[in-house]
Amino acid sequence: MAEAKLPELGKIDRHFFDEVIYPHLGAKDPTVLLGPRHGVDFGVVELGDKVLVSSADPVYIAPALGWERAAWFALHILASDVAVSGIRPRYLSIDLNLPPEMSEEVLRTIWETIHREAEKLGIAIVSGHTARYAGCNYPMVGGATIFGVDDRSKLVDPRSARPGDLVIITKGPAIETTGLMSVQFPEFIEERLGPEAVKEAQGIFYQMSVVHDCAVVAETGGVHAMHDATECGVWGGLFEMAEAGEYGLRIWPERIVVQDIVAKTCAVFDIDPFKAISEGTLIAVLEPAKAEEAVAALKAEGIPASIVGEVVPREEGTNLIYPDHVEPLVHPKVDPFWIRFEEYLLKQSQRRSR
Fold it and tell me: Is residue 12 very low, low, confident or very high in pLDDT (cuts 50, 70, 90)?
């Protein structure tokens, strides 16, 4: 087997994780119910009749988004990874490693936005560290961990899905791709689609959270797995869920909601929406009796959703079912968003230097 290699950008792949990270997880502890694994956004520790759920991520502050918008996004990325456990995000521990060029005014705006959004979500900030350091740069300005504590009965264990369960997808693909590309590169969208399309695409930005989606689905009941379709989008998210739960999936792509402005924005930048990063797109697996109810509850909250597939035994594989053929569901491995983002940063810079 080839030696595991780090990717040029983005998350490490399965091979590197399995060879370097997974075999070395510190002390063994029987209270750890769920540790690091592919396709799972959180870990779980048993606390008697309750569980503690946690998830860690960078504090992602992209200046081009505007400071308030960037801080909103940073917090919701963190909170979403705990929300998919079915346990409400409740505590935040945050480390801010500030770039030397960050001003007091900018930090004040970022922090007040994080406070305001945390308050809305019911998240208390319990510990942290804040300092300026040489070598620290945007957009990764630190790291944070979100915790949730609640009754064990509310935990959605991603390994509990079983054949016959139905798959729901909310909002459709490329939510994050559309939100970020439209804010960073509005001039390219305006040239092709006009100013109203820019406004509509930028409106997708505040869909980049699954916290509310998860709460609605969890309230419905009968949830066996939830996952936020981040890196490599819907196809990557489906693959990761199937791998984590050790089951197969039968998916009908034509049933997946695709928002019109998302499709148009992805076409402007020549991005396959189903392979592109999509923070805000929830993939949920529910028992059949609850799936329609969950879709109706989501739509009542203004969240587009549809039933797009079903869980099948592992031996049937992980497939996409088309009218005339079957294809294996594979992980895209490379997210086209990062490639196009770098490409259009260069184009934008060249234009502005003329």
Answer: confident
Please check whether residues 338 and 248 belong to one and the same domain.
yes
d(CA 227, CA 245): 11
Which domain, by its residues, includes 193?
158-346
> Does 176 fall in a domain?
yes
Same domain, 183 and 122: no
Radius of gyration of the chain (CA): 20
Q: Do both 39 and 140 map to the same domain?
A: yes
Please tell me the total count of domains within the chain.
Answer: 2
**Closest to 183 (Cα-Cα) out of 76, 301, 72, 83:** 72
Please check whether residue 327 is in contact with residue 253, taking contact to mean a CB–CB distance below 8 angstroms: no
pLDDT per position as a tens digit, 108-156: 999 999 999 999 999 999 999 999 999 999 999 999 999 999 999 999 9
Give pLDDT tens digits for 270-280: 999 999 999 99
Q: Which is it for strands 319-321 and 248-251: parallel, antiparallel or unpaired?
A: parallel
Nearest-angstrom CA–CA distance, 112 and 108: 6
User: What's 294's domain CATH number?
Assistant: 3.90.650.10
Residue with tokens 């930005």: 205
Nearest to 163 by CA among 292, 296, 305, 315: 315
Asked whether residue 1 carries a pLDDT value surpassing 60, the answer given is no
Sheet arrangement for strand 248-251: 223-228, 282-286, 166-170, 305-312, 248-251, 319-321, 326-328
pLDDT of the residue at 317: 67
DSSP per residue, 222-280:
-EEEEEE--TTHHHHHHHHHHHHHT-EEEE-GGGS---HHHHHHHHHTT--GGGS--TT
* 47 within a domain of the structure (yes/no): yes
134: left (phi over 0), alpha (psi -120 to 50) or beta: beta
174 in a structural domain: yes
